[in-house]
Write a structure and sequence with these properties.
The complex is a heterodimer of chains A (449) and B (177). With 449 residues, chain A is mainly α. Chain A has helices at residues 19-26, 31-57, 72-96, 102-126, 153-189, 193-203, 210-243, 255-281, 290-321, 324-335, 339-351, 359-363, 365-389, 407-430, 436-448. In chain A, 49% of the residues are buried. Chain B is built from 5 helices and 4 strands. The radius of gyration of chain B is 25 Å and the shape is rod-shaped. Classes of the chains: A mainly alpha (449), B alpha+beta (177). At the A-B interface, helix 5, helix 7 and helix 15 of A face strand 2, helix 2, helix 3, helix 4 and strand 4 of B.
Protein backbone atom coordinates (compact mmCIF):
# COMPACT_ATOMS: atom_id res chain seq x y z
CA UNK A 1 0.00 0.00 0.00
CA UNK A 2 0.97 3.63 0.00
CA UNK A 3 3.54 4.74 2.56
CA UNK A 4 0.94 5.95 5.02
CA UNK A 5 2.89 4.89 8.10
CA UNK A 6 3.79 7.82 10.28
CA UNK A 7 6.30 8.05 13.12
CA UNK A 8 4.46 7.38 16.35
CA UNK A 9 6.83 8.24 19.18
CA UNK A 10 6.96 12.01 18.86
CA UNK A 11 3.36 13.15 19.23
CA UNK A 12 1.93 13.95 22.60
CA UNK A 13 -0.14 11.55 24.61
CA UNK A 14 -3.90 12.11 24.61
CA UNK A 15 -4.88 9.29 26.98
CA UNK A 16 -3.97 8.99 30.67
CA UNK A 17 -0.74 7.04 31.06
CA UNK A 18 -1.43 3.82 32.95
CA UNK A 19 1.90 2.20 32.12
CA UNK A 20 3.22 2.42 35.73
CA UNK A 21 0.37 0.13 36.83
CA UNK A 22 0.84 -2.29 33.93
CA UNK A 23 4.60 -2.43 34.54
CA UNK A 24 4.25 -3.86 38.09
CA UNK A 25 3.22 -7.43 37.17
CA UNK A 26 5.95 -7.63 34.52
CA UNK A 27 8.80 -6.64 36.84
CA UNK A 28 10.98 -8.99 38.84
CA UNK A 29 9.78 -9.63 42.38
CA UNK A 30 11.85 -8.11 45.19
CA UNK A 31 13.28 -9.89 48.24
CA UNK A 32 10.68 -8.40 50.63
CA UNK A 33 7.94 -9.73 48.40
CA UNK A 34 9.41 -13.24 48.43
CA UNK A 35 9.77 -13.15 52.24
CA UNK A 36 6.14 -12.03 52.66
CA UNK A 37 5.00 -14.62 50.12
CA UNK A 38 6.89 -17.41 51.91
CA UNK A 39 5.51 -16.36 55.30
CA UNK A 40 1.94 -16.41 54.06
CA UNK A 41 2.56 -19.70 52.23
CA UNK A 42 3.75 -21.12 55.56
CA UNK A 43 0.41 -19.98 56.99
CA UNK A 44 -1.38 -21.93 54.27
CA UNK A 45 0.69 -25.02 55.08
CA UNK A 46 -0.37 -24.58 58.71
CA UNK A 47 -3.97 -24.37 57.51
CA UNK A 48 -3.52 -27.66 55.66
CA UNK A 49 -2.09 -29.33 58.78
CA UNK A 50 -4.93 -28.05 61.00
CA UNK A 51 -7.60 -29.14 58.56
CA UNK A 52 -5.97 -32.57 58.25
CA UNK A 53 -5.92 -32.83 62.08
CA UNK A 54 -9.56 -31.85 62.22
CA UNK A 55 -10.54 -34.39 59.59
CA UNK A 56 -8.57 -37.12 61.41
CA UNK A 57 -9.67 -36.46 65.00
CA UNK A 58 -12.96 -34.57 64.62
CA UNK A 59 -14.22 -31.35 66.24
CA UNK A 60 -13.03 -32.65 69.65
CA UNK A 61 -9.73 -30.87 68.90
CA UNK A 62 -11.59 -27.59 69.33
CA UNK A 63 -12.42 -25.89 72.63
CA UNK A 64 -16.17 -25.94 71.93
CA UNK A 65 -18.51 -27.84 74.30
CA UNK A 66 -22.02 -27.47 75.76
CA UNK A 67 -23.12 -24.70 76.27
CA UNK A 68 -20.48 -23.13 74.00
CA UNK A 69 -21.31 -25.14 70.88
CA UNK A 70 -20.00 -22.37 68.64
CA UNK A 71 -16.52 -20.94 68.98
CA UNK A 72 -13.86 -19.88 66.51
CA UNK A 73 -15.75 -21.56 63.67
CA UNK A 74 -18.57 -19.01 63.84
CA UNK A 75 -16.53 -16.08 65.23
CA UNK A 76 -14.05 -16.15 62.38
CA UNK A 77 -16.65 -16.91 59.74
CA UNK A 78 -18.78 -13.91 60.71
CA UNK A 79 -15.66 -11.76 60.96
CA UNK A 80 -14.28 -12.62 57.51
CA UNK A 81 -17.75 -12.23 55.96
CA UNK A 82 -18.02 -8.77 57.56
CA UNK A 83 -14.71 -7.69 56.03
CA UNK A 84 -15.72 -9.07 52.63
CA UNK A 85 -19.08 -7.36 52.79
CA UNK A 86 -17.78 -3.92 53.65
CA UNK A 87 -15.06 -4.11 50.97
CA UNK A 88 -17.58 -5.31 48.36
CA UNK A 89 -20.12 -2.72 49.41
CA UNK A 90 -17.56 0.05 48.91
CA UNK A 91 -16.66 -1.26 45.44
CA UNK A 92 -20.30 -1.72 44.42
CA UNK A 93 -21.41 1.72 45.54
CA UNK A 94 -18.47 3.37 43.79
CA UNK A 95 -19.24 1.54 40.52
CA UNK A 96 -22.96 2.25 40.59
CA UNK A 97 -22.45 5.93 41.46
CA UNK A 98 -19.54 6.19 38.94
CA UNK A 99 -17.59 7.85 41.74
CA UNK A 100 -14.08 9.13 41.00
CA UNK A 101 -12.64 7.11 43.89
CA UNK A 102 -13.46 3.87 42.01
CA UNK A 103 -10.45 4.21 39.74
CA UNK A 104 -8.12 4.11 42.74
CA UNK A 105 -9.57 1.57 45.14
CA UNK A 106 -12.11 -0.61 43.34
CA UNK A 107 -9.84 -3.31 42.02
CA UNK A 108 -8.13 -4.19 45.30
CA UNK A 109 -11.29 -3.66 47.37
CA UNK A 110 -12.88 -6.35 45.17
CA UNK A 111 -9.79 -8.55 45.51
CA UNK A 112 -9.77 -8.16 49.31
CA UNK A 113 -13.46 -9.07 49.39
CA UNK A 114 -12.84 -12.16 47.27
CA UNK A 115 -9.90 -13.32 49.43
CA UNK A 116 -11.95 -12.74 52.61
CA UNK A 117 -14.92 -14.71 51.25
CA UNK A 118 -12.62 -17.60 50.34
CA UNK A 119 -11.19 -17.55 53.89
CA UNK A 120 -14.70 -17.32 55.36
CA UNK A 121 -16.13 -20.10 53.20
CA UNK A 122 -13.84 -22.71 54.79
CA UNK A 123 -15.31 -22.40 58.29
CA UNK A 124 -18.93 -23.47 57.69
CA UNK A 125 -17.71 -26.57 55.83
CA UNK A 126 -15.17 -27.44 58.53
CA UNK A 127 -17.64 -27.01 61.40
CA UNK A 128 -20.09 -29.52 59.92
CA UNK A 129 -18.59 -32.36 61.98
CA UNK A 130 -18.21 -34.59 58.93
CA UNK A 131 -16.99 -32.01 56.40
CA UNK A 132 -16.38 -34.58 53.67
CA UNK A 133 -20.15 -35.05 53.43
CA UNK A 134 -20.86 -31.34 52.87
CA UNK A 135 -22.41 -32.10 49.48
CA UNK A 136 -25.36 -33.68 51.27
CA UNK A 137 -26.93 -30.22 51.50
CA UNK A 138 -27.01 -30.06 47.70
CA UNK A 139 -30.17 -31.54 46.17
CA UNK A 140 -28.76 -34.37 44.07
CA UNK A 141 -30.45 -37.73 43.41
CA UNK A 142 -28.79 -39.83 46.11
CA UNK A 143 -28.78 -43.64 46.23
CA UNK A 144 -30.86 -43.62 49.43
CA UNK A 145 -33.44 -41.34 47.77
CA UNK A 146 -33.13 -38.83 50.62
CA UNK A 147 -33.45 -35.12 49.85
CA UNK A 148 -32.12 -32.12 51.84
CA UNK A 149 -34.47 -30.52 54.35
CA UNK A 150 -35.18 -27.10 52.85
CA UNK A 151 -36.88 -25.90 56.02
CA UNK A 152 -33.47 -25.90 57.73
CA UNK A 153 -31.29 -22.79 57.93
CA UNK A 154 -28.28 -24.93 56.96
CA UNK A 155 -29.56 -24.73 53.38
CA UNK A 156 -29.44 -20.92 53.46
CA UNK A 157 -25.78 -21.19 54.39
CA UNK A 158 -24.97 -23.52 51.53
CA UNK A 159 -26.58 -21.37 48.83
CA UNK A 160 -25.55 -18.13 50.52
CA UNK A 161 -21.84 -18.98 50.67
CA UNK A 162 -21.73 -20.55 47.20
CA UNK A 163 -23.44 -17.51 45.67
CA UNK A 164 -21.29 -15.08 47.67
CA UNK A 165 -18.00 -16.61 46.50
CA UNK A 166 -19.11 -16.88 42.86
CA UNK A 167 -20.75 -13.46 42.52
CA UNK A 168 -17.87 -11.66 44.31
CA UNK A 169 -15.44 -13.48 41.99
CA UNK A 170 -17.49 -12.57 38.90
CA UNK A 171 -17.58 -8.89 39.87
CA UNK A 172 -13.80 -8.85 40.23
CA UNK A 173 -13.17 -10.83 37.04
CA UNK A 174 -15.55 -8.93 34.72
CA UNK A 175 -13.86 -5.67 35.69
CA UNK A 176 -10.46 -7.27 35.10
CA UNK A 177 -10.99 -8.56 31.53
CA UNK A 178 -9.99 -5.37 29.61
CA UNK A 179 -6.97 -4.82 31.87
CA UNK A 180 -5.84 -8.40 31.26
CA UNK A 181 -5.92 -7.57 27.53
CA UNK A 182 -3.61 -4.61 28.23
CA UNK A 183 -1.25 -6.93 30.09
CA UNK A 184 -1.36 -9.42 27.20
CA UNK A 185 -0.41 -6.73 24.67
CA UNK A 186 2.36 -5.28 26.83
CA UNK A 187 3.87 -8.68 27.52
CA UNK A 188 3.73 -9.53 23.81
CA UNK A 189 5.47 -6.26 22.95
CA UNK A 190 8.26 -7.18 25.36
CA UNK A 191 8.56 -10.53 23.61
CA UNK A 192 7.42 -12.54 26.63
CA UNK A 193 5.13 -14.85 24.73
CA UNK A 194 4.36 -17.35 27.51
CA UNK A 195 3.27 -14.56 29.86
CA UNK A 196 1.31 -12.95 27.03
CA UNK A 197 -0.50 -16.22 26.35
CA UNK A 198 -1.38 -16.67 30.02
CA UNK A 199 -2.89 -13.19 30.21
CA UNK A 200 -4.42 -13.77 26.78
CA UNK A 201 -6.30 -16.88 27.90
CA UNK A 202 -7.97 -14.95 30.73
CA UNK A 203 -8.56 -11.86 28.57
CA UNK A 204 -10.79 -14.09 26.41
CA UNK A 205 -9.69 -12.45 23.15
CA UNK A 206 -10.70 -8.93 24.24
CA UNK A 207 -9.89 -6.45 21.47
CA UNK A 208 -11.45 -3.25 22.82
CA UNK A 209 -14.27 -3.01 20.30
CA UNK A 210 -16.60 -0.17 21.31
CA UNK A 211 -19.53 -2.59 20.87
CA UNK A 212 -17.90 -4.98 23.35
CA UNK A 213 -17.26 -2.13 25.78
CA UNK A 214 -20.92 -1.18 25.75
CA UNK A 215 -22.06 -4.70 26.73
CA UNK A 216 -19.14 -5.12 29.13
CA UNK A 217 -20.12 -1.99 31.04
CA UNK A 218 -23.73 -3.18 31.19
CA UNK A 219 -22.62 -6.56 32.59
CA UNK A 220 -20.22 -4.99 35.11
CA UNK A 221 -22.83 -2.62 36.49
CA UNK A 222 -25.48 -5.34 36.54
CA UNK A 223 -23.29 -7.64 38.62
CA UNK A 224 -22.50 -4.71 40.94
CA UNK A 225 -26.22 -4.08 41.38
CA UNK A 226 -26.83 -7.80 41.99
CA UNK A 227 -24.08 -7.98 44.59
CA UNK A 228 -25.68 -5.21 46.66
CA UNK A 229 -28.69 -7.19 47.95
CA UNK A 230 -26.55 -10.30 48.25
CA UNK A 231 -24.25 -8.53 50.71
CA UNK A 232 -27.08 -7.68 53.04
CA UNK A 233 -28.34 -11.26 52.75
CA UNK A 234 -24.93 -12.79 53.42
CA UNK A 235 -24.38 -10.88 56.64
CA UNK A 236 -27.93 -10.79 57.95
CA UNK A 237 -28.71 -14.44 57.27
CA UNK A 238 -25.90 -15.49 59.64
CA UNK A 239 -27.16 -13.04 62.26
CA UNK A 240 -30.71 -14.25 61.61
CA UNK A 241 -29.59 -17.78 62.38
CA UNK A 242 -28.37 -16.52 65.76
CA UNK A 243 -31.57 -14.56 66.29
CA UNK A 244 -33.80 -17.57 65.61
CA UNK A 245 -32.26 -19.44 68.58
CA UNK A 246 -33.66 -19.04 72.12
CA UNK A 247 -30.39 -17.83 73.70
CA UNK A 248 -31.44 -14.55 75.42
CA UNK A 249 -28.55 -12.42 74.17
CA UNK A 250 -28.90 -13.67 70.57
CA UNK A 251 -32.70 -13.68 70.35
CA UNK A 252 -32.78 -10.01 69.33
CA UNK A 253 -34.22 -8.29 66.28
CA UNK A 254 -31.30 -5.83 66.40
CA UNK A 255 -28.61 -8.49 65.97
CA UNK A 256 -28.54 -8.49 62.10
CA UNK A 257 -28.24 -4.69 62.11
CA UNK A 258 -25.48 -4.78 64.74
CA UNK A 259 -23.46 -7.31 62.73
CA UNK A 260 -23.82 -5.39 59.45
CA UNK A 261 -22.94 -1.99 60.94
CA UNK A 262 -19.94 -3.11 63.01
CA UNK A 263 -18.70 -5.02 59.95
CA UNK A 264 -18.37 -1.79 57.95
CA UNK A 265 -15.37 -0.22 59.74
CA UNK A 266 -13.60 -3.60 59.69
CA UNK A 267 -13.76 -3.94 55.89
CA UNK A 268 -13.21 -0.25 55.16
CA UNK A 269 -10.31 -0.18 57.63
CA UNK A 270 -8.71 -3.10 55.83
CA UNK A 271 -9.19 -1.44 52.42
CA UNK A 272 -7.66 1.75 53.84
CA UNK A 273 -4.65 -0.16 55.20
CA UNK A 274 -4.26 -1.94 51.83
CA UNK A 275 -4.48 1.34 49.93
CA UNK A 276 -1.80 2.91 52.14
CA UNK A 277 0.50 -0.12 51.79
CA UNK A 278 0.01 -0.51 48.03
CA UNK A 279 0.62 3.14 47.20
CA UNK A 280 3.77 3.10 49.28
CA UNK A 281 5.27 -0.25 48.30
CA UNK A 282 4.30 -0.11 44.61
CA UNK A 283 4.82 3.65 44.19
CA UNK A 284 1.25 4.29 43.07
CA UNK A 285 0.94 7.81 44.49
CA UNK A 286 -0.30 9.16 41.15
CA UNK A 287 -3.12 6.61 40.98
CA UNK A 288 -4.15 6.45 44.64
CA UNK A 289 -3.70 10.15 45.39
CA UNK A 290 -4.02 12.13 48.63
CA UNK A 291 -7.65 12.98 47.81
CA UNK A 292 -8.50 9.28 47.52
CA UNK A 293 -6.77 8.47 50.81
CA UNK A 294 -8.50 11.38 52.54
CA UNK A 295 -11.93 10.24 51.30
CA UNK A 296 -11.27 6.64 52.27
CA UNK A 297 -10.07 7.47 55.79
CA UNK A 298 -13.03 9.77 56.42
CA UNK A 299 -15.36 7.03 55.15
CA UNK A 300 -13.82 4.61 57.66
CA UNK A 301 -14.27 7.19 60.41
CA UNK A 302 -17.93 7.68 59.40
CA UNK A 303 -18.56 3.91 59.45
CA UNK A 304 -16.98 3.78 62.88
CA UNK A 305 -19.27 6.59 64.04
CA UNK A 306 -22.25 4.49 62.92
CA UNK A 307 -20.78 1.60 64.95
CA UNK A 308 -20.56 3.85 68.01
CA UNK A 309 -24.24 4.62 67.59
CA UNK A 310 -25.15 0.93 67.24
CA UNK A 311 -23.12 0.09 70.38
CA UNK A 312 -24.94 2.86 72.29
CA UNK A 313 -28.27 1.52 71.03
CA UNK A 314 -27.25 -1.98 72.12
CA UNK A 315 -26.39 -0.80 75.61
CA UNK A 316 -29.60 1.22 75.92
CA UNK A 317 -31.82 -1.67 74.83
CA UNK A 318 -29.81 -4.45 76.45
CA UNK A 319 -29.38 -2.82 79.87
CA UNK A 320 -32.49 -0.63 80.18
CA UNK A 321 -35.39 -1.37 77.87
CA UNK A 322 -35.33 -5.19 77.52
CA UNK A 323 -36.89 -7.73 79.89
CA UNK A 324 -35.02 -9.02 82.94
CA UNK A 325 -33.56 -12.15 81.28
CA UNK A 326 -32.17 -10.23 78.29
CA UNK A 327 -30.84 -7.46 80.59
CA UNK A 328 -28.98 -10.01 82.67
CA UNK A 329 -27.48 -11.62 79.53
CA UNK A 330 -26.25 -8.24 78.28
CA UNK A 331 -24.84 -7.36 81.71
CA UNK A 332 -22.80 -10.58 81.68
CA UNK A 333 -21.41 -9.62 78.26
CA UNK A 334 -20.21 -6.19 79.38
CA UNK A 335 -19.00 -7.11 82.90
CA UNK A 336 -18.44 -10.90 82.89
CA UNK A 337 -15.44 -13.08 82.14
CA UNK A 338 -15.38 -12.00 78.49
CA UNK A 339 -16.02 -8.28 79.16
CA UNK A 340 -12.57 -7.39 77.79
CA UNK A 341 -13.62 -8.65 74.34
CA UNK A 342 -16.73 -6.47 74.38
CA UNK A 343 -14.82 -3.32 75.35
CA UNK A 344 -11.95 -4.09 72.97
CA UNK A 345 -14.47 -4.32 70.14
CA UNK A 346 -16.06 -1.03 71.13
CA UNK A 347 -12.70 0.72 71.47
CA UNK A 348 -11.14 -0.59 68.24
CA UNK A 349 -14.07 -0.35 65.82
CA UNK A 350 -16.05 2.56 67.21
CA UNK A 351 -13.68 4.90 69.06
CA UNK A 352 -10.07 4.66 67.78
CA UNK A 353 -10.97 5.08 64.06
CA UNK A 354 -12.46 8.49 64.95
CA UNK A 355 -8.84 9.71 64.77
CA UNK A 356 -9.11 9.23 60.99
CA UNK A 357 -11.21 12.37 60.74
CA UNK A 358 -7.85 14.13 61.00
CA UNK A 359 -6.36 14.59 57.54
CA UNK A 360 -2.81 14.26 58.84
CA UNK A 361 -3.47 10.90 60.52
CA UNK A 362 -5.44 9.52 57.55
CA UNK A 363 -2.78 10.43 55.01
CA UNK A 364 0.22 9.04 56.86
CA UNK A 365 0.98 5.38 56.16
CA UNK A 366 2.43 5.00 59.66
CA UNK A 367 -0.93 5.84 61.28
CA UNK A 368 -3.51 4.81 58.66
CA UNK A 369 -2.27 1.20 58.39
CA UNK A 370 -2.39 0.38 62.15
CA UNK A 371 -5.69 2.21 62.63
CA UNK A 372 -7.27 0.39 59.68
CA UNK A 373 -6.03 -2.99 60.89
CA UNK A 374 -7.21 -2.17 64.43
CA UNK A 375 -10.70 -1.49 63.11
CA UNK A 376 -10.64 -4.92 61.43
CA UNK A 377 -9.35 -6.55 64.64
CA UNK A 378 -12.01 -4.75 66.69
CA UNK A 379 -14.77 -6.45 64.73
CA UNK A 380 -13.15 -9.79 65.57
CA UNK A 381 -13.37 -8.98 69.31
CA UNK A 382 -16.99 -7.97 68.81
CA UNK A 383 -17.81 -11.31 67.11
CA UNK A 384 -16.04 -13.15 69.93
CA UNK A 385 -18.14 -11.29 72.48
CA UNK A 386 -21.40 -11.99 70.59
CA UNK A 387 -20.78 -15.70 69.99
CA UNK A 388 -19.18 -16.63 73.31
CA UNK A 389 -19.94 -14.12 76.05
CA UNK A 390 -23.73 -14.19 75.69
CA UNK A 391 -23.92 -17.83 76.79
CA UNK A 392 -21.70 -17.55 79.84
CA UNK A 393 -24.78 -17.22 82.04
CA UNK A 394 -26.64 -20.40 81.08
CA UNK A 395 -30.25 -20.96 82.08
CA UNK A 396 -29.83 -24.68 82.61
CA UNK A 397 -28.65 -26.36 85.84
CA UNK A 398 -25.65 -28.06 84.19
CA UNK A 399 -21.92 -27.98 84.55
CA UNK A 400 -20.80 -25.05 82.40
CA UNK A 401 -17.23 -24.93 81.25
CA UNK A 402 -16.01 -21.62 79.87
CA UNK A 403 -15.03 -21.38 76.23
CA UNK A 404 -11.31 -21.24 75.56
CA UNK A 405 -10.12 -21.64 71.98
CA UNK A 406 -7.74 -24.59 71.57
CA UNK A 407 -4.43 -24.56 69.68
CA UNK A 408 -6.16 -26.19 66.72
CA UNK A 409 -8.55 -23.24 66.52
CA UNK A 410 -5.80 -20.62 66.79
CA UNK A 411 -3.92 -22.44 64.03
CA UNK A 412 -7.06 -22.40 61.91
CA UNK A 413 -7.39 -18.62 62.35
CA UNK A 414 -3.71 -18.12 61.60
CA UNK A 415 -4.05 -20.41 58.60
CA UNK A 416 -6.96 -18.54 57.04
CA UNK A 417 -5.07 -15.31 57.75
CA UNK A 418 -2.15 -16.76 55.78
CA UNK A 419 -4.49 -17.76 52.96
CA UNK A 420 -5.95 -14.24 52.83
CA UNK A 421 -2.52 -12.60 52.73
CA UNK A 422 -1.21 -15.09 50.15
CA UNK A 423 -4.16 -14.41 47.83
CA UNK A 424 -3.68 -10.66 48.18
CA UNK A 425 0.09 -10.87 47.60
CA UNK A 426 -0.43 -12.93 44.45
CA UNK A 427 -3.07 -10.46 43.31
CA UNK A 428 -0.78 -7.49 43.95
CA UNK A 429 1.90 -8.89 41.67
CA UNK A 430 0.03 -10.86 39.01
CA UNK A 431 -2.74 -8.50 37.88
CA UNK A 432 -3.03 -4.70 37.70
CA UNK A 433 -3.94 -3.48 41.21
CA UNK A 434 -5.61 -0.33 39.91
CA UNK A 435 -8.28 -0.43 37.21
CA UNK A 436 -6.39 0.97 34.21
CA UNK A 437 -9.31 1.44 31.83
CA UNK A 438 -11.34 3.22 34.53
CA UNK A 439 -8.39 5.56 35.10
CA UNK A 440 -8.21 6.39 31.36
CA UNK A 441 -11.98 6.74 31.17
CA UNK A 442 -12.20 9.06 34.15
CA UNK A 443 -9.39 11.25 32.84
CA UNK A 444 -11.13 11.51 29.45
CA UNK A 445 -14.43 12.40 31.10
CA UNK A 446 -12.94 15.07 33.33
CA UNK A 447 -11.18 16.64 30.33
CA UNK A 448 -14.45 16.71 28.40
CA UNK A 449 -16.28 18.32 31.31
CA UNK B 1 -1.91 -8.46 -4.42
CA UNK B 2 -4.74 -10.16 -2.55
CA UNK B 3 -7.60 -8.10 -1.22
CA UNK B 4 -7.08 -7.18 2.49
CA UNK B 5 -9.76 -7.92 5.11
CA UNK B 6 -10.19 -4.21 5.68
CA UNK B 7 -8.56 -0.83 6.14
CA UNK B 8 -7.73 0.39 9.63
CA UNK B 9 -6.94 3.93 10.81
CA UNK B 10 -5.15 4.76 14.06
CA UNK B 11 -6.08 7.90 16.02
CA UNK B 12 -4.59 9.63 19.05
CA UNK B 13 -7.91 10.70 20.52
CA UNK B 14 -11.52 9.61 20.72
CA UNK B 15 -12.99 12.72 19.05
CA UNK B 16 -11.10 12.18 15.80
CA UNK B 17 -12.08 8.50 15.74
CA UNK B 18 -15.72 9.44 16.36
CA UNK B 19 -15.67 11.94 13.46
CA UNK B 20 -14.32 9.27 11.10
CA UNK B 21 -16.86 6.76 12.39
CA UNK B 22 -19.72 9.20 11.78
CA UNK B 23 -18.51 9.85 8.23
CA UNK B 24 -18.19 6.12 7.52
CA UNK B 25 -21.71 5.47 8.77
CA UNK B 26 -22.97 8.31 6.60
CA UNK B 27 -21.18 6.86 3.58
CA UNK B 28 -23.11 3.65 4.16
CA UNK B 29 -20.46 1.31 5.58
CA UNK B 30 -22.14 -1.55 7.37
CA UNK B 31 -19.22 -3.83 8.24
CA UNK B 32 -17.08 -1.62 10.46
CA UNK B 33 -15.87 -1.54 14.05
CA UNK B 34 -14.11 0.93 16.33
CA UNK B 35 -11.60 0.05 19.06
CA UNK B 36 -10.80 2.09 22.17
CA UNK B 37 -8.82 1.71 25.42
CA UNK B 38 -11.91 2.69 27.45
CA UNK B 39 -15.69 2.72 26.91
CA UNK B 40 -16.83 5.27 24.29
CA UNK B 41 -20.65 5.15 24.53
CA UNK B 42 -21.16 7.58 21.59
CA UNK B 43 -19.29 5.21 19.28
CA UNK B 44 -21.39 2.22 20.40
CA UNK B 45 -24.49 4.30 19.73
CA UNK B 46 -23.31 5.06 16.18
CA UNK B 47 -22.88 1.32 15.65
CA UNK B 48 -26.39 0.75 17.07
CA UNK B 49 -25.16 -1.42 19.95
CA UNK B 50 -26.80 -1.09 23.35
CA UNK B 51 -26.30 -2.70 26.73
CA UNK B 52 -29.94 -3.61 27.41
CA UNK B 53 -29.89 -7.08 25.81
CA UNK B 54 -27.36 -8.06 28.49
CA UNK B 55 -29.79 -6.77 31.12
CA UNK B 56 -32.66 -8.69 29.52
CA UNK B 57 -30.65 -11.93 29.59
CA UNK B 58 -29.65 -11.24 33.22
CA UNK B 59 -33.21 -10.61 34.40
CA UNK B 60 -34.59 -13.60 32.50
CA UNK B 61 -31.93 -15.91 33.96
CA UNK B 62 -32.58 -14.54 37.45
CA UNK B 63 -36.30 -15.23 37.15
CA UNK B 64 -35.65 -18.71 35.76
CA UNK B 65 -33.26 -19.42 38.67
CA UNK B 66 -35.84 -18.22 41.20
CA UNK B 67 -38.62 -20.36 39.72
CA UNK B 68 -36.37 -23.42 39.53
CA UNK B 69 -35.12 -23.00 43.11
CA UNK B 70 -38.56 -22.41 44.60
CA UNK B 71 -40.01 -25.23 42.52
CA UNK B 72 -37.24 -27.61 43.60
CA UNK B 73 -37.78 -26.81 47.26
CA UNK B 74 -41.54 -27.19 46.91
CA UNK B 75 -41.42 -30.43 44.96
CA UNK B 76 -38.79 -32.13 47.12
CA UNK B 77 -40.15 -31.07 50.52
CA UNK B 78 -43.88 -31.19 49.84
CA UNK B 79 -44.40 -33.81 47.12
CA UNK B 80 -41.48 -36.19 46.82
CA UNK B 81 -40.12 -36.37 50.38
CA UNK B 82 -42.53 -34.90 52.95
CA UNK B 83 -41.30 -35.12 56.55
CA UNK B 84 -43.50 -34.14 59.47
CA UNK B 85 -41.38 -31.97 61.79
CA UNK B 86 -43.55 -31.32 64.86
CA UNK B 87 -46.62 -30.71 62.70
CA UNK B 88 -45.11 -27.70 60.94
CA UNK B 89 -46.48 -26.96 57.47
CA UNK B 90 -44.69 -28.74 54.62
CA UNK B 91 -45.05 -25.75 52.30
CA UNK B 92 -43.13 -23.33 54.56
CA UNK B 93 -42.88 -20.50 52.01
CA UNK B 94 -41.11 -17.92 54.25
CA UNK B 95 -38.27 -20.37 54.84
CA UNK B 96 -38.04 -21.14 51.11
CA UNK B 97 -37.54 -17.47 50.24
CA UNK B 98 -33.89 -16.80 51.27
CA UNK B 99 -32.51 -19.61 49.07
CA UNK B 100 -34.87 -18.65 46.21
CA UNK B 101 -33.62 -15.10 46.27
CA UNK B 102 -29.94 -15.98 46.68
CA UNK B 103 -30.01 -18.51 43.83
CA UNK B 104 -31.84 -15.99 41.59
CA UNK B 105 -28.97 -13.55 42.16
CA UNK B 106 -26.43 -16.28 41.42
CA UNK B 107 -28.08 -17.23 38.11
CA UNK B 108 -28.47 -13.59 37.09
CA UNK B 109 -24.80 -12.78 37.81
CA UNK B 110 -23.52 -15.78 35.85
CA UNK B 111 -25.89 -14.90 33.00
CA UNK B 112 -24.55 -11.33 32.95
CA UNK B 113 -21.03 -12.61 32.22
CA UNK B 114 -22.09 -15.39 29.84
CA UNK B 115 -24.64 -13.15 28.06
CA UNK B 116 -22.05 -10.41 27.59
CA UNK B 117 -19.55 -12.91 26.18
CA UNK B 118 -22.07 -14.58 23.84
CA UNK B 119 -23.32 -11.26 22.45
CA UNK B 120 -19.71 -10.14 21.97
CA UNK B 121 -18.82 -13.51 20.37
CA UNK B 122 -16.05 -14.01 22.93
CA UNK B 123 -13.93 -15.86 23.89
CA UNK B 124 -12.25 -15.96 20.54
CA UNK B 125 -8.74 -17.20 19.77
CA UNK B 126 -7.89 -14.71 17.07
CA UNK B 127 -9.27 -11.86 15.02
CA UNK B 128 -7.86 -10.30 11.82
CA UNK B 129 -7.49 -6.82 13.42
CA UNK B 130 -4.83 -8.16 15.81
CA UNK B 131 -2.54 -8.40 12.77
CA UNK B 132 -2.89 -4.67 12.02
CA UNK B 133 0.35 -2.77 12.71
CA UNK B 134 0.37 -1.08 16.13
CA UNK B 135 -2.96 -2.57 17.15
CA UNK B 136 -1.50 -3.66 20.52
CA UNK B 137 -1.94 -0.07 21.66
CA UNK B 138 -5.73 -0.26 21.27
CA UNK B 139 -5.62 -1.62 24.81
CA UNK B 140 -3.50 1.25 26.04
CA UNK B 141 -3.78 4.69 24.46
CA UNK B 142 -4.84 4.53 20.78
CA UNK B 143 -8.19 4.54 19.00
CA UNK B 144 -8.83 2.57 15.82
CA UNK B 145 -11.49 2.50 13.15
CA UNK B 146 -11.61 -0.52 10.89
CA UNK B 147 -13.64 -0.65 7.68
CA UNK B 148 -14.06 -4.24 6.52
CA UNK B 149 -14.11 -4.72 2.76
CA UNK B 150 -15.68 -8.15 2.42
CA UNK B 151 -18.90 -6.76 0.92
CA UNK B 152 -19.44 -6.07 -2.77
CA UNK B 153 -19.24 -2.37 -3.58
CA UNK B 154 -16.91 -1.58 -0.68
CA UNK B 155 -13.23 -1.95 -1.52
CA UNK B 156 -9.91 -0.99 0.02
CA UNK B 157 -9.34 2.07 -2.15
CA UNK B 158 -12.77 3.39 -1.27
CA UNK B 159 -12.04 2.85 2.45
CA UNK B 160 -8.61 4.45 2.29
CA UNK B 161 -10.04 7.48 0.51
CA UNK B 162 -12.64 7.91 3.27
CA UNK B 163 -10.12 7.51 6.12
CA UNK B 164 -7.67 9.96 4.53
CA UNK B 165 -10.10 12.77 5.26
CA UNK B 166 -9.29 12.58 8.97
CA UNK B 167 -6.30 13.22 11.16
CA UNK B 168 -5.18 9.60 11.41
CA UNK B 169 -1.70 8.73 12.71
CA UNK B 170 -1.55 6.01 10.09
CA UNK B 171 -3.76 4.03 7.77
CA UNK B 172 -2.93 0.43 7.03
CA UNK B 173 -4.53 -2.63 5.48
CA UNK B 174 -5.70 -5.42 7.77
CA UNK B 175 -4.24 -8.64 6.34
CA UNK B 176 -6.86 -11.17 5.33
CA UNK B 177 -6.96 -14.05 7.81
Amino acid sequence: MSGADMPRAAEEREVADTAPVARIPLQRFGATYWIALSASAAGVVLLGVTVATLLRFGTGVWGTNVPHVWGFDLINYVWWIGIANAASLLAVVLVLRRHGLRTAVNRFAEAAALAAVVAAGLYPILHLGRPWLFFWVFPYPATYQVWPQFRSTLIWDFWGITAHVLVTGLFWYIGLIPDLATMRDRAARQGRLVVARLYGVFALGWRGSVCHWSRHQAAYRLVAALLLPLLLAAQTVVALEFATTLVPDWHQARLPLHVVVTGLPSGLGLVLALAAMLRRTLGLHAFIDAGDMDLLSRLTAAASLASLWIYAEGLLFGLVLEDAVAREAMLVRVTGTYAAYYWAGLLLTAILPQLLWSRRIGLSTATAVPLGLCAAAGAWFDRYSIVVAGIERTNLPVARPLYVPSDAEWMLLLGTGGLFVLLLLLFARLVPVVSMYETRHEEAESEAA
Amino acid sequence: MTQPAGMIAEFADAEEMLAALRAARKAGWRRLDAYAPYPVPEAAELLAVRGWPVAAITVAAGLAGAVLQYGTQYYLNVVDYPINVGGRPLHAWPVFLPATYIVAVLWAAIAALVGMLVLNRLPRLHHPVFAAPGFDRASEDRFFLCLFVDEPGFDAAHAEHLLRGFDALRISPVPAA
